[in-house]
Design brief:
The complex is a heterodimer. Chain A is an alpha/beta fold. Chain A is built from 21 helices and 20 strands. In chain A, helix 2 (30-36) links the parallel strand 2 and strand 3. Chain B folds into 2 domains: 2-77, 2-Layer Sandwich (Alpha-Beta Plaits); 83-155, 2-Layer Sandwich (Alpha-Beta Plaits), CATH 3.30.70.1150. The chains are: A alpha/beta, B alpha+beta.
Chain lengths: 561, 161
């Protein structure tokens, strides 16, 4: 078969099962766009390459399979970088394809030339600069294999224009790249872990995003019940364990509940599963779990001992290790420890006024959304206070229902990720909870949303501030507020309508929850602008650098607030 | 503590940037780094000398093993490997001092490879225990320039094996 590099790339992507491809065209990627003409691949035209990257991320985070995105050279590629770096920190399988100037022009400061290979090198799992059309036969399957195998992550493929235009004769097409099986964890550490769990008095399971990516949620829950070990969760593991589970203690760390962090102070064994001891989870590392022996299961050997020395490290797929552990672990009842966990949970609930008094308190609002939306609804967030309120109060009941930028903390993630989620999970309800700061960072994707007409509700928790910045300035910078208040606040409902999306502004004087409910019941995409208190803070909060036991808790609200 | 890491890598585009970028990106300090092809043209060997405790070294090794183009990582403990460095130095040498410099070179089995009226270039091979005192002895004459390869290392074979 005689074909062009561009056409070959399209065929290879089709064989990888790519049927939705977000991107933006430009000069150096035009031969590939020409090859897309008439293809079965549905191209989704984003309005900014970062949007395209996060749409692909939304698809990948919902399905667990690698998604691809497209951009041209130069600014197209640099605009993608944030979405790639974000995928790296949250271990999301992503294949980013960029056009590049022709090889004869590389290094000449040509129009829209940038060293995409050099720029993506430190933020990808691996990256390629394709030197000939024939190389595509190896590079494309390998890119998908690498993105999905082991610890998932982003892979970048930079394709010069002359490679896309080159003619090539091919005899056979390669097999699509697939997730490669891992070397199984040996038996000895699993036996040792069973022994540790059997002899601990106060064990705790500390779940991270790896539990979700290895589909080990049910196994982790079974282990908790077998071992009578309470469960704490990172932001990335929310959804793995339903909140009504009696052993579930919620999120740990900077904005975790007090009882959860106190429980870890008392634990004598902490088993981390697919978690990476991020500073937002551990607080001051030296004082994290001070009485506990640490055991750590991770797919990435470099995570074992990276932050906190593990007494026992197990490298492998969490689901496989947990299954084999459950085969040999005898049941433990530990009534006193279970009772202690229940007591801590009951003693330290999230502090918030009752709904009847303050329906728009963010905690009440998140719980209300949890009642309004089905259990399989997908919630994306942006980054800031609203993200933490959602994490604290929204009842995530299933894995892969919370899509959030955990590691990089990228404002602007929510809307395009919600579009990707809706594209990848047709028929499911998708809501993006955002803030009035974050939504402006990728608001242009409302045009994409209108065009695709997807069932995405964007709920803006509007406090006319960069709320988490304002909160930190209040608490840690002597209330010297600098650049955290928006003097001009746009009319988001009108902006939405301008993009062709239904827009509603909630009037706090009427019945706000009824208005939200009515807005959510409408057809198609919508933006719901919800005014919340301008000075509400996320509590509890561990001051940066402090130990997790040193949480600040809500002060009683002054009467005029 | 000083560690010598020998890293076998695929001879692919950008591999040096990948390895050195990992070192800088994760805050590991390298004392020296040498890269050159092996007898197999598909493979290159990177020899890196690092300062750090055992935990830091463990992390470097694990991060290196994660890089796709890295084939093998070996950490040489003291005495396990033959370690050598090639050093070239240009030293001020007048007709008065030249013979004294030649004597020092003899003692250290160094070679004078270039002679000019006011300077010589000397070539010497060895480990740090040899090169450091050699340079110290040359210092009073006036060292003008130094170029060195960084440490190279290969595992010793056990004579009884």
């Amino acid at each position: 078969m005689k074909t062009t590099g561009a056409n070959l790339l399209r065929i290879l992507l089709e064989r990888q099962g790519i049927h939705t491809l977000p991107g933006i065209p430009g000069g150096a990627i035009l031969p590939f766009y020409d090859a897309l003409h008439g293809s079965a691949i549905r191209h989704v035209l984003a309005r900014h390459e970062q949007g395209a990257g996060f749409i692909a991320q939304g698809m990948a985070r919902v399905t667990g399979r690698a998604a691809a995105c497209l951009a041209t050279s130069g600014p197209g590629a640099t605009n993608l970088l944030t979405a790639i770096a974000d995928a790296r920190l949250d271990s999301v399988p992503l294949v980013a394809i960029t056009g590049q100037v022709s090889q004869s022009l590389i290094g000449t400061d040509a129009f829209q030339e940038v060293d995409t290979y050099g720029l993506t090198l430190p933020i990808t799992k691996h990256n390629f600069l394709v030197r000939s059309a024939a190389e595509l036969l190896d590079v494309v399957p390998l890119a998908f294999q690498l993105a999905e195998s082991g610890r998932p992550g982003p892979v970048a493929i930079d394709v010069p224009k002359d490679v896309q235009n080159a003619t090539i004769e091919i005899d056979a097409l390669p097999e699509p790249g697939r997730r490669q099986p891992l070397a199984p964890c040996p038996d000895e550490p699993i036996d040792a872990l069973a022994h540790l769990l059997a002899h601990a008095q106060r064990p705790v399971l500390y779940l991270g995003g790896g539990v979700i990516s290895s589909d080990a949620s049910a196994l982790a829950r079974a282990l908790a019940h077998r071992a009578s070990a309470p469960i704490v969760s990172t932001l990335m593991a929310l959804g793995a364990i339903p909140p009504e589970d009696p052993l579930f203690m919620g999120m740990l760390g900077m904005h975790g509940t007090q009882g959860t962090n106190f429980l870890l102070e008392e634990a004598d064994l902490v088993l981390a599963i697919g978690a990476r001891f991020d500073d937002r989870a551990t607080g001051k590392v030296a004082e994290f779990c001070p009485r506990a022996t640490i055991a750590h299961i991770d797919i990435d050997p470099a995570e074992i001992g990276k932050i906190k020395t593990a007494f026992l490290g197990l490298v492998g797929d969490a689901a496989d290790i947990l299954r084999r552990l459950l085969d040999i672990l005898p049941p433990q009842t530990r009534p006193a420890w279970r009772a202690r966990a229940a007591e801590l949970r009951a003693t330290y609930p999230l502090q918030h006024p009752p709904r009847s008094e303050d329906p728009l308190h963010p905690v009440n609002l998140c719980r209300f959304l949890g009642e309004q939306l089905p259990a399989d609804a997908i919630i994306t967030t942006d980054v800031g206070q609203h993200q933490m309120w959602v994490a604290q109060a929204y009842p995530f009941r299933q894995p892969r229902t919370l899509l959030t930028s955990g590691g990089l903390g990228t404002m602007g993630f929510g809307l395009p990720a919600a579009i990707g989620a809706a594209l990848a999970a047709p028929g499911r309800r998708v809501a993006c909870v955002s803030g009035d700061g974050s939504i402006l960072m990728n608001i242009q994707e409302l045009a994409t949303l209108a065009e695709e007409n997807l069932p995405v509700a964007v709920l803006i928790f509007n406090n006319t501030h960069l709320g988490l910045v304002r909160q930190q300035q209040e608490l840690f910078y002597r209330q010297r507020y600098e650049a955290s208040r928006f003097a001009s606040s746009p009319d988001f409902a009108a902006i939405a309508r301008g993009f062709g999306v239904r827009g509603e502004r909630i009037d706090p004087m009427g019945d706000p929850l009824e208005q939200i409910s009515a807005a959510l019941a409408g057809e198609g995409p919508c933006v719901i602008d919800i005014p919340i208190h301008t000075t509400a803070n996320v509590y509890p909060m561990v001051p940066p650098g402090a130990a997790n036991r040193q949480m600040l808790i809500a002060q009683p609200e002054p009467a005029h607030a | 503590m000083r560690h010598t890491l020998s890293v076998l890598v695929e001879n692919k585009f950008g591999v040096l940037a990948r390895v050195s970028g990992m070192f800088s990106g994760r805050g590991f300090n390298i004392d020296s780094l040498n890269v050159a092809p092996t007898h197999d043209p598909a493979l290159s060997r990177i020899t890196a000398v690092l300062n750090g405790d055992d935990t830091a070294l463990d992390m470097v090794t694990k991060q290196l093993r994660k890089l796709i183009n890295v084939v093998e990582v070996v950490d040489f403990h003291a005495g396990e490997a033959v370690q050598r460095e090639l050093l070239l130095t240009r030293v001020k040498a007048t007709s008065k001092t030249r013979s004294e410099i030649m004597q020092i070179c003899d003692i250290f089995r160094a070679k004078i490879v270039n002679v000019a009226p006011d300077a010589v270039i000397i070539e010497i091979t060895g480990d740090e225990g040899k090169l450091t005192p050699f340079l110290k002895l040359l210092e009073p004459f006036g060292i003008l320039e130094i170029a060195r390869t960084g440490l190279l290392a290969l595992k010793r074979d056990n004579a009884s094996a």
